[in-house]
């Protein structure tokens, strides 16, 4: 296929990947997290660990989660000496098994993959059968709502958010307690260390500031060098997790102060619009490419984390070339758990995503 000529509006959309401007100097009235039932952390893994603590998950208890998941989430479960057990998903990323055929568990995790609302019917049926807690993993779906206009992350007993995956901040995650039946021990959720801004984020932030003056060429050039060096060193341009990431939880820290500034000053409508415009643009430029979208359409209330698609490994080089013509890139998702990676449906390894935030 040939390249489409990007309009000025589309060039602005592409530039927003590298320097999104979705905060105001004025405080806004964005309210998602009730003060008394929300706790903030550096990473979503910390939020999940504390969710398990609050739900009184003990050593030997089973936690159900999708087999199609990043391996590092297991570190939260292993940190509690709990036992992860997997259910499978179909190509629409919905639960494959029937609830009555799943093993007994103390909690089950439902994931809103890529910010798209997960159908919770099977999960709620399972919870009614087994008396399990429902944990809604909304790491990808900050700002997304379901067809009933309800924010994702508010539909289970607890909700998890990885806000750093949506906003350009060093780190930031949240744990939201949705059930008034859950007793919260403040001593459990507040014993965490102070946080500092990493040199890596400071450098990225400095590069972002140049985007408005010199465009994005300096970032593209830097990424090319980094990818080349990584491929020379590891054989792959993409970073990989290690087996130890399934067990080693990072040192727990408070969320960076920039998270709270962004939450107070966020222009949520602008960020939702930006992500939806990027999704539509990527969908357009991939027409004719050997790939298929994971989801048949973009729901009205969805603020997508990225543009997810299915593609064979042999076709990715061509697709990457098409995307690079618009200064966009794709990467594989997820880095599967070691128990799953060699024993899973083929489509688990054929999911790629075009990122909307550098």
From TrEMBL:
One Pfam family recorded for the sequence: DegT_DnrJ_EryC1
One function term, GO molecular function aspect: pyridoxal phosphate binding
Record carries keyword Acetylation: no
Domain of life: Bacteria
GO BP terms: polysaccharide biosynthetic process
Keyword entries, A-Z: Membrane, Pyridoxal phosphate, Transmembrane, Transmembrane helix
Keyword Transmembrane helix carried by entry: yes
Transmembrane segments: 210-229
InterPro entries: DegT/StrS_aminotransferase, PyrdxlP-dep_Trfase, PyrdxlP-dep_Trfase_major
PANTHER family linked to this entry: TRANSAMINASE, UDP-2-ACETAMIDO-2-DEOXY-3-OXO-D-GLUCURONATE AMINOTRANSFERASE
Annotated family: Belongs to the DegT/DnrJ/EryC1 family.
The protein, known as: DegT/DnrJ/EryC1/StrS aminotransferase
Species this chain originates from: Silvanigrella aquatica
């Amino acid at each position: 296929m040939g390249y489409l000529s990007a309009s000025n509006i589309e060039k602005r959309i592409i530039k927003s990947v590298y320097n999104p401007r979705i905060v105001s100097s004025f405080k806004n009235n964005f309210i998602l997290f009730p003060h008394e039932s929300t706790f903030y952390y550096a990473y979503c893994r910390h939020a999940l660990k504390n969710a398990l603590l609050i739900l009184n998950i003990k050593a030997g208890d089973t936690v159900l989660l999708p087999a199609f998941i990043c391996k590092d989430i297991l570190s939260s479960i292993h940190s509690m000496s709990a036992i992860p057990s997997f259910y499978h998903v179909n190509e629409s990323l919905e639960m494959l098994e029937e609830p009555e055929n799943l093993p007994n568990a103390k909690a089950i995790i439902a994931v809103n993959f890529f910010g798209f609302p997960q159908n919770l019917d099977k999960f709620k049926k399972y919870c009614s059968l087994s008396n399990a807690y429902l944990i809604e993993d909304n790491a990808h779906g900050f700002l997304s709502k379901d067809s009933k206009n309800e924010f994702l992350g508010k539909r289970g007993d607890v909700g998890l958010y990885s806000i750093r995956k949506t906003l350009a901040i060093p780190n930031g995650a949240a744990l939201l307690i949705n059930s008034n039946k859950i007793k919260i021990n403040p001593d459990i959720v507040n014993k965490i260390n102070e946080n500092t801004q990493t040199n890596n984020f400071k450098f990225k932030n400095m590069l972002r500031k140049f985007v408005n003056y010199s465009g994005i060429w300096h970032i593209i050039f830097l990424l090319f060098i980094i990818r080349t060096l990584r491929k020379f060193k590891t054989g792959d341009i993409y970073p990989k997790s290690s087996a130890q990431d399934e067990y080693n939880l990072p040192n727990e820290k408070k969320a960076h102060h920039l998270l709270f500034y962004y939450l107070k000053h966020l222009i949520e409508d602008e960020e939702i619009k930006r992500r939806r415009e990027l999704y539509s643009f990527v969908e357009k430029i991939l027409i004719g490419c050997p790939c298929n979208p994971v989801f048949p359409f973009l729901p009205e209330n969805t603020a997508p984390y990225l543009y997810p698609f299915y593609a064979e490994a042999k076709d990715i080089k061509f697709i990457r070339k098409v995307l690079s013509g618009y200064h966009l890139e794709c990467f594989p998702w997820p880095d599967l758990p070691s128990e799953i990676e060699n024993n899973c449906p083929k489509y688990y390894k054929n999911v790629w995503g075009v990122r909307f935030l550098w």
